[in-house]
Amino acid sequence: MLFNSFAFALFLPIVFALYWALPHKYRWILILLASYYFYMSWNAKYVFLILFTTIISYGAARLLEQEEMQKRKKWILVGTAVLCLGVLFFFKYFNFVSGSVADFLALFAIKMNPITLNLLLPVGISFYTFQTLSYVIDVYRGDVAAERHFGYYAAFISFFPQLVAGPIERTSNLLPQIKKHHTFDYNQATYGLKLIAWGYFKKIVIADTLSPYVSWVYDAPQNFSGFALVLATLFFTLQIYCDFSGYSDIAIGTSKLLGINLMTNFKSPYFSQSIKEFWSRWHISLSTWFRDYVYIPLGGNRVSKIRYHLNLMIVFLVSGLWHGANWTFVLWGGIHGAGQVVESILVPKQTIKRRSKGIFWLVRVAFVFAFASFAWIFFVSHSVQDAFYVISHLFTGISAPLAYVKDGLAAIEMEKFILLKEACLIFMMAAYDYFSLQVDVIQEISKKNVVIRWLVYLCLGWIIVFFSQKGVAAEFVYFQF
Amino acid sequence: MKKLISKLILFAVILAVVVESVNIVYVKRDKSDPNYIRKFQNIPNEIQICNFGSSHGLYSYDYEELEEKDACFNFGLSAQSLSYDYRLFQEYKDHIREHAVVFITLSYFSFFGEPEENSEDFASKNARYYPILPAKLIKQYDFATDLFTHYVPALGAETDVLIKTLLGKTVDDGGDDWQRVAFDIDVSADAEGAYVRHIEYNQDEQTGQLLLNQESVDALYALIEGCQKQGATPILVTTPYLAEYTNAVKKNAPGFYDQFYSIVNQVVNDTGVEYYDYAFDERFSDNYAWFMNSDHLNQEGARNFVHFLIEEAVH
């Protein structure tokens, strides 16, 4: 079930009404049933994978709590990680590893037919596997107590607003909220609804309307060159942000309707002044996951400089691989890792931390935006070859700038009128993000007088209704991870 | 909670009023007809001659020069399947009077290929039937599409079309193509492209065998039977093509014609209907002036074709 589907438009009010009508002690049952129904509406069979992961991690955490011998605890942790990650590996990485081994052997003239599994990738498997792992690791470290109530725990793992694309929640934030007795909070609910509306704006008005141009170019980049490739890359930079942060907004807003606060996942990342800052603003739940469970255990920055840089590269390469079983994702992660390493070598720490103003701010933001856009080329390309083709043809024909721009627009068949419309919508989104650096925009609007704020809400509703991409509801990009 | 619900209802009502206001203006100003379905608003009550079919049906029959033009109707729509021919017949059969002549257009792709529901463009193709057919006759009916295309068409319109229409600007829906002549295009390349779309796409990727679409064959039998029950005379017709098109089929799929005609002959034998094949008619096959591309007549060609067809199949 997609957030941008009619099924969800029926599902959410029903869950909302039942949730607040039920006594607290039965609400976890509703969350669990609703979450499993939500997931099964995509593929009923794969719900057993969530159930399997839930049972394994629940049992492991209970064992970890009871076990006193550190060595045995370690084995329980390793065993659980192997089982949970094994499922992820089997569904997501088996074909990739098998194909890569065959390719590698071919370099030495050893012919091997790669074994491939014809399996559909379970939606959200990377997200709930990581959430499960963080719980088991937290229990192992003694940071949280193992949950005794299986129902609460299962509801925590499968909580439908964030089940398929995050935010990847931490036990200490979400689980206590599921267990806590909530009373209906009008302000929290209205804030949630406004966030949901903003999420829909980003997803179906911006991301989905840019998506056809991106797909058209990146499905066969060899048919394009010059400004068409620049535009498609720029569009993807905006599409992926609006798509994913739009999903996060809807997820966070939906949870607020149920009285639950999820963690913030995006904080205006394209206004970052350094690559390091970009990663503290982009997909925060994943970045902090890698920080807490990979980077810090590797030693973080409290090691030699070389080791610190190596740690950064490891984290970003693994993060790239987390996104998808393709070398393009590994390279994408590698570029960001290398970017951070170079940044930490060339730019003094104080400069990275310092907040620039005026033209310096603009230059720094523009640089990070350009860097992120460049890296997205690898993320969106179907193959490494395609990515290198795009990079090598981005500026073809730029010696005649007017023709370069005109031909690019003609090649992607984008009318000036549509370009203008997209530019206005993107400006709206950028303005929201810019002001979010200082204030909570939704709160600020809520403080305005009734005429102004209702006009804003109606305009947003009107834009969502009329300017959305027409046709079949498009999946969210991050569902494939 | 009551406060939230009452505010939400108020918001929804105001938004609905705004949306409906825009919709009213849009419907009033919208003169475009990209799917050629406006004609169903003026369907004659006593149809004497009509035709079904895909784009070959849509573009090959122009009844404007006939005396009985007000009692003629073209049910053809681009890429329309035989299944939808039959669905349209079911809905509009009461408009077809006794002893009417019904031309059922058979194209080379009519009997072959996977179910149309599997095609990528099915959703957009299917959406055009919402304003002209009841829910029970629409494949994979869903309320959202109905809402967008039927009740609030402004919601289903592309943003540029919506704004241009609201501003009173003319929206180009490609209607001028019918006036084009085949001299203006590379007919051989067009024929190869048409062959790929009409035949190669309908072959099994592994074996290269044509995939029989049983639903289409069954729909043809049902349509013939329905016409006969209505007291009308169904006539099967394959419309004229340029030689480049038929040659491309012969060259690339030598066994195709045997399969196509064996099905047509079977239907003719089973039902007793007549079949008129203009695919190789020399009056058309190299007459570029009557075609807009390798397999579609232009308006002049369509008028001449109807003239010949009435002369040879009806009189």
Structure description:
The complex is a heterodimer of chains A (481) and B (315). Chain A is mainly alpha-helical and 481 residues long. Chain A is built from 21 helices and no strands. Chain A has helices spanning 6-21, 24-40, 47-66, 70-106, 125-141, 150-158, 160-163, 171-179, 186-219, 227-257, 275-281, 284-295, 305-323, 327-346, 349-353, 358-380, 384-393, 401-411, 416-436, 441-447, 450-467. In chain A, helix 10 (227-257) packs across helix 16 (358-380) and helix 13 packs antiparallel against helix 14 (327-346). The longest helix of chain A has 37 residues, at 70-106. Chain A is globular, with a radius of gyration of 23 Å. The mean pLDDT of chain A is 91. Chain B is globular, with a radius of gyration of 22 Å. Chain B contains 12 helices and 5 strands. A 5-stranded parallel beta sheet of chain B has the order 2-1-3-4-5. In chain B, helix 2 links the parallel strand 1 (47-52) and strand 2. The mean pLDDT of chain B is 90. Chain B has helices spanning 2-29, 55-60, 82-92, 122-127, 143-151, 153-156, 159-166, 187-198, 214-229, 243-252, 256-271, 299-314; strands at 47-52, 72-74, 96-105, 233-238, 274-277. The termini of chain B are far apart. Helices cover 45% and strands 9% of the residues of chain B. Chain B is an alpha/beta fold and 315 residues long. Chain A binds chain B through residues 6, 20, 184, 186, 189-190, 193, 209, 415, 417-418, 421, 454, 457-458, 461-462, 465-467, 470-472, and chain B through 1, 3-4, 7-8, 11, 14-15, 18-19, 22, 123-124, 142-144, 148, 154-160, 162-164.
